[in-house]
Design goal:
10 helices; Arc Repressor Mutant, subunit A; mainly alpha; flat; 2 domains; 205 residues; Tetracycline Repressor, domain 2
């Protein structure tokens, strides 16, 4: 008797990301994922009890990428916070159609506590305490995630859209930035990092 092939959690997550990238999040169902991987619809329930469990797995993939991608340029609290912000942005850039889901996910199954506690620990190390820690965390989180969603939300057309907006303004400084989609991408990244630095300065970090 031939045993059915066993699939790994990572295989399902990879397949789900392919579906979202090509067809959008609304196309991601357990039935569609089963067809993509070669598993019957009923058998899918042995891997994920609900579609929400599947979404949680995707969010956890992004969180893991954020953690793995942190590469500080120095040892200071500021350097480490910037590294976390940039890593989060890169992760959301890889999964632009999941960015809004990542931000809105409210499942307590999602293991994003490691990022939160790391940032909180850095803020405390910098001398913040009490409500100031939570407020500073909220300000940083809102900027990093909000700016990233704004930049990548229209992917893969996001660079062309911003370029058209800049060119249509008629302003010479905006037109100078909008020489190409690549130039717009570099501009977006520069503006993001500059903005993050200004926010940290404003928080006294």
């Amino acid at each position: 008797m031939v045993r059915p092939r066993e699939h790994t959690h990572e295989e399902f997550v990879d397949a789900a990301i392919r579906i979202v990238d090509t067809e959008g999040l609304e196309a991601l169902t357990l039935r569609r994922l089963g067809a993509e991987v070669g598993v019957s619809f009923t058998a899918m329930y042995t891997y994920f009890a609900t579609r929400e469990d599947l979404i949680t797995a995707l969010v956890e993939r992004i969180t893991a990428d954020v953690i793995k991608g942190v590469v500080p340029k120095g040892d200071s609290v500021r350097d480490q916070l910037i590294a976390i912000g940039l890593s989060a942005r890169r992760a959301l850039a890889r999964y632009p159609r999941l960015a809004a889901v990542y931000v809105s996910a409210q499942s307590d199954v999602v293991d994003d506590g490691q990022v939160m506690l790391t940032v909180a620990g850095l803020l405390e190390h910098a001398g913040l305490s009490g409500r100031d820690v939570a407020i500073a965390y909220r300000v940083i989180e809102s900027y990093v995630l909000g700016a990233s969603i704004f930049d990548f939300g229209a992917a893969p057309e996001h660079l062309a859209i911003r370029r058209r907006r800049y060119l249509a303004s008629g302003h010479p400084d905006f037109k100078a930035v909008a020489k190409s989609d690549k130039a717009i991408g570099e501009h977006n990244d520069e503006a993001f990092e500059r903005g993050l630095e200004l926010i940290l300065t404003g928080l006294g970090l």
